[in-house]
Structure formats: C-alpha cells, structure tokens
Specification:
single chain; 198 residues; mainly alpha; 11 helices; 63% helix; globular; binds guanosine-5'-diphosphate; binds fe (iii) ion
Length: 198
C-alpha cells in the first residue's frame, strides 16, 4: 500500500480502491508520476485558493488511461461517439480526451470539472478553468520531471498560474515542431490563447 490518501467525495470508490485500481492500469514509473502530479496540483490549489482535495484527486487520475492498449482506444473512439478525426492521432492525445471516458467507467467519477480537467490536461484549450490550469501545469512541473526549462517553468507557474500555462504551451509547441509532430488543433488554439505575448 502507498502512503497516500485521496478524498472520497468525488467517487463511490474508497481511497484505497481508487489507488489500487489506478496502480493496476500502469507501470510503477507512471504511478509515481501520478502521485507527483497529485501533490503538485494540491500545492498549486493552495496557492490559487482552489479546493485542494479535488485538485489532488484530479492530478492523481489524470493519466489513468495512459497505458490502455491502442486497439482498445480505437474501438472506444468508434463505439462511444468520439470525433473520428481522433483516429488520426495517438495515445498522447487520446489518453486525456478519451481517457476521461475510462475514468467515468472505472472510477465512477461524475464531477464535470474533474472530467474536463482530465480531457484538457495534454492539449490545454481556449477556455480553461482553474482546475484545468492546475492539472495542466502540475503535470509539467511535478518533482519527477527533468528537462531543460523545468526549473523556469516551476518558477513561472508558482508565481502566476496563467503564465505557467503559457510557458508550458510555448515549450510543448516548440518541442513538437522540432519533432515535426502533428499538432492537435486544440494545442494550437490554446497556444494562441495563453502563450502569445500581449
Ligand atoms: P504525460 O501524459 O504525463 O506524458 O504528459 P501529457 O499528457 O502532457 O503529454 C503527453 C504527450 O503528448 C507529450 O509528449 C506532449 O508533448 C504530447 N502532445 C501534447 N500536445 C500534442 C499535440 O498537439 N500533438 C502531438 N502529436 N503530441 C502532443
Ligand atoms: Fe498525460
Ligand atoms: Fe501526466
């Protein structure tokens, strides 16, 4: 058992059941990342006067569906009425947008803010709630992250959550373009909304 507990307000599952279910879906490295995001989301919530327990839970479940097989994703997109254009992307994009469906199915989470924050956690969006921003940024700066620029990202995000969102989108877009990766349209729209200098 891990030394970690979660609010039982947002799911009929107990904290121990949520943790066990999450653990069963991923490898240890991903699981530790989810704990890091949960703790960082709680810290950002405290700084931004948001519900700490809700942020911690959302951070914990944000990558719940990250390691679900590609074949299951493709089938779910087709069967559950998702935009067929999603089939042109991969798990990097699916695990938030489609992942939110698995979170509702398996973890019985119904809170619309939590579901939306999971949906938006990879790409961001033009409209972002405080919880969306907290989870988006916590994912990028949790203690396990180590890449050039992460210290600057932490400094910016802890000083100003919106600036943290902008920093992350600029960094991610630059990285994706460097890789000549396909940009999901929402990532680009989010960049225009949050990263462009006023
Ligand atoms: P993780 O799940 O904790 O690894 O982090 P994220 O959910 O934020 O991102 C997963 C991956 O998706 C990262 O490698 C991002 O660079 C990548 N990603 C984010 N936006 C896009 C996009 O528009 N297109 C593509 N192809 N990848 C993206
Ligand atoms: Fe993710
Ligand atoms: Fe993540």
């Amino acid at each position: 058992m891990v030394d970690f507990s979660l609010s039982e307000t947002f799911s009929p599952l107990t904290s121990a059941e949520l943790i066990a279910q999450e653990k069963s879906m991923m490898d240890e490295h991903r699981f530790q990342h989810c704990i890091g995001v949960s703790q960082t989301a709680a810290k950002l919530a405290r700084l931004n006067h948001y519900d700490v327990a809700k942020a911690a839970l959302t951070g914990f479940v944000h990558d719940y569906a990250k390691q679900i097989p590609v074949s299951v994703y493709r089938q779910t997109i087709k069967e559950q009425g998702f935009d067929p254009d999603l089939l042109n992307y991969n798990r990097a994009i699916w695990h938030g947008i489609v992942g939110s469906w698995f979170i509702q199915r398996d973890l019985k989470i119904t809170d619309p803010e939590i579901i939306t924050a999971v949906k938006r956690h990879t790409t961001g969006d033009v409209t972002m709630t405080t919880l969306d921003k907290i989870v988006f940024v916590a994912d990028f700066i949790e203690p396990g992250r180590d890449f050039p620029g992460v210290e600057e990202a932490r400094k910016v995000a802890y000083a100003d959550l919106n600036a943290g969102v902008g920093y992350e989108l600029a960094h991610t877009l630059a990285f994706l373009i460097e890789q000549r990766a396909k940009i999901y349209p929402k990532t680009l729209l989010a960049y225009n909304q949050w990263a462009v200098k006023k």
